[in-house]
Amino acid sequence: MLKGKTAVIGVTGSIAAYKIPDLVRMLKKQNCNVEVLMTKNACNFIHPITFESLTGNKCLVDTFDRNFQYSVEHVALAKKADVLMIAPASANVIGKIASGIADDMLTTTVLACKCKRMVSPAMNHNMYHDPIVQHNLDKLRRFGYEIIEPATGMLANGDMGDGRMPEPEELYEYIIRQIAFEKDLVGKKVLVTAGSTRESIDPVRFITNHSSGKMGIAIAKAAMLRGAEVTLVAGHTDVPLPPFVNNISVVSAEDMYNAVSQLSKEQDIIIKAAAVADYTPITTADSKLKKSEGEMFIELKRTKDILKYLGENKRPGQFICGFSMETDNVIENSSKKLYSKNCDMICANSLRTEGAGFGTDTNVITLITREGAEELPKMTKEMAAHRILDKITGK
Questions:
Q1: Domains in the chain: boundaries
Q2: Is 209 known to be catalytic?
Q3: Which residue has the higher pLDDT, 331 or 156?
Q4: Which one from 209, 246, 333, 342 is the annotated catalytic residue?
Q5: Domain 189-393 top-level CATH class
């Protein structure tokens, strides 16, 4: 995913430095070239050899180190960096950068960089909230630095509060968002639905389906990585909701219909990937649950058709994409839905196709538009999400 990309990681004097090898390892697994810079204080917490072993690159600390092929090293690194992250970022280094002080390899490289620069503060709760530190962070924000908000929890000295550096997995997501994909959806608003809805029968039981939400979540994340402003309306899902997305959780089909109808007019692209329960119990006083000899009889009514609403209320220039899960006549039935629901595209698949059912990590999709059908091979849902977005954007 990150082949050909260079991430520069700056490590400063904080106990949280011990977490950064995990971040480096995650980036290397994605074929990213990782360059690590350390302050002298950071070397008291972790040795540069650790990073050299993981990255295959010399870990630079001293601005005047002669043990590398000649170049003005901080300028060379600054030129090839696609993203720079200081993690952990001490109050000392934050203050230096905010004041334009460049007195070591890390600070000189940071000030020479033209790429996206991110800072992840890590320090004691009281130090983090000191007005001078907060002033320096605000100053960095004004100059285009992205400040990663610290986590809350137990700090190194046993205190509870914010000031903790986020876990490596979260820092990794910040880097992935920045450099993994071309930002071809910048300026676009994308609404995605995902997961299954639940229709209550009584306080214990409900009607639902087998949807895991994996496909919709993959689409929402892919759109976010490509620069879109993404809103995800999600029912029950088997996987976590994606970061950097406006996540709205719902329970019933009515909840999802209300959320989508309220948000739809502002969107440029709407992708309905949720498997909404088709029926909901009638719970009026005249339609009580009927029980007879151990059996339960429930009167049902159809839930509102979200895709039909979207098609009927589509504004000019808006792109509507629906999903169609079939057991027979996949292309024929899905093509009918394309026209009857006034969609621009239907992503169709069959429950009978291996690798395309509920709960899998793969999918086998046919993209159906008014111009025809394009059958995609079996692939991961993440790959399928990007192929769907490629089709929508005309790639």
A1: 6-179, 189-393
A2: yes
A3: 331
A4: 209
A5: alpha beta
